Structure formats: structure tokens, C-alpha cells
Amino acid sequence: MQITFNPHSPEDCRTIAVLFDARAARMAQPETATARPDTPLADDLTATDTPDSDIVPAAYQTDTPDTPVWTPVAEGAPQYIQGEVTHADDTDIHGMTHDDAIHSTPASKNADGSWRAKRGQKEAYEAAIAARTAPTGMPMPQPAAEAPATPPAPIDYKTMADRFVAKMSDPDGLPTDHGTIYAALQIGYADLETNQTSIARLDAYMDAVDNGDDHDACVRHALGSV
Fold first, then answer.
1. What SS3 state is found at 91?
2. CA 166 from chain center: how many Å?
3. What CA–CA distance (Å, rounded) separates 178 from 20?
4. DSSP letters along 40-82, please?
């Protein structure tokens, strides 16, 4: 048997040493069975030359990479990384599951977490997102805003003054004298003709008089009305 090896290779030297040790051990043992015929192998060894060692020649070693292998494919075709698993039933940022009709295949997502749109299905894709994210249920009716209160029409001073003078002329027209009424209603003489608050209080006071109230009740009514 002819063995070719590289004497400068440590691995080849170890392999040759193992082979010689194994052959020497077998030759030293008595033969108890018919020796198997030597079957040539690819590296000029025979079936009976298999070393009894954990050291295996490079020809018998198998390399299995532990990391995913990226294999380029034709441009435009889907590319995968070995070990990558895509779950089509996952939901995206909008809560939508993958739909082959509007989403790209194989399933993949944009940077914002939404499914990638299928080519030519942009309108259907956006419509599906709008339908998914639209608020559900009928909106609750909001109560109408209350209309601003209409301010009372201003009271004409002359009309109020004529009414007050007529009551002063009637012995039973007013429960007390006009000075006491002015003081209780905080009315001044100087601006009475133009002060709409004072005019309104006097008018409200006379309304209470017409209802039969006494002075104190008329004052409370006038101050509470204006």
C-alpha cells in the first residue's frame, strides 16, 4: 500500500503515526478470523486501515456551519436568511393580520411595524388600514350649547320716573318715603337718569309694591332682580 502525505503538515504526520500504530497492533495479535479483503478507498487506504482513534483524516471530516448562510439569488426574487422564520399570522402595528391580497409576499414589515403593501394594491392597502383604525360605534351626541341669555331691554327712565312720582302722590302708593327707598337700594341722585341699574332697581321695587309686599320684601326683590 502506498501512502502519500506532506511531511511538513502536522496533521498528516499525526495521521500517519496513528495508522502505523494501528497496523502494528493488529499484526501483533493472533488472527482468529478470516481477514477481510482489503477494499481500496478514495484516499488509497483500505477498509482494514481505519484508525481506532478520535483523530479523523481531513478527507473524512464534515464541516457544518453553526451560523446562518446567506445565499444570493436572482434580483427581484424573495431572499431568505437560513434560520429566519416569518409568522404570517402575526399582527402589525394596526392590529392587522397578513393578507396576501394587499400585503407583500413573503410577509415582511416596514420600519414603523406595518405590513408592506403589495405592488399595485396601494389603494386597497390604505383603505384596509383606514377601515381597521376607524373608530367603532356611533358617536355620542353632544348636548347643544346653551344660547346666551338675552339681556333685558333697557327701561326708559322717563317711564319709570312717571310711575314712581305717581306712587309718591298716592298715600298708599309706597310703603315708605323715597329717601329711605333710595338708601336701601343704593341709588344716587347724581346719575339716576343714566344709571340703568338704579332705574331697574326702582322699577323692580315698584313691581313688588304692586304685589302687596312690604318695604323689606320689596328691597330684597329689587336687589335680587338686578
1. strand
2. 76
3. 143
4. B-TTS-BGGG--SSS---GGG-----SS-------TTS----T
Residue the block writes with cell 502494528: 24
End-to-end CA distance of the chain: 129
Report residue 101 as a C-alpha cell: 391580497
Whose cell is 477494499? That residue is 39
pTM over 0.85: no
CB burial of 113-148 (b: ≥16 within 10 Å; e: otherwise) equals: eebbbbeebeeebeebbeeeeeeeeeeeeeeeeeee
Strand partners, 103: 117
Segment among 121-130, 131-140, 174-183 with least mean pLDDT: 131-140
Q: Name the percent of the chain lying above pLDDT 70.
A: 67
Amino acid at 11: E
CB 173 within 8 A of CB 209: yes
Domain ranges of the chain: 10-60, 87-132, 157-225
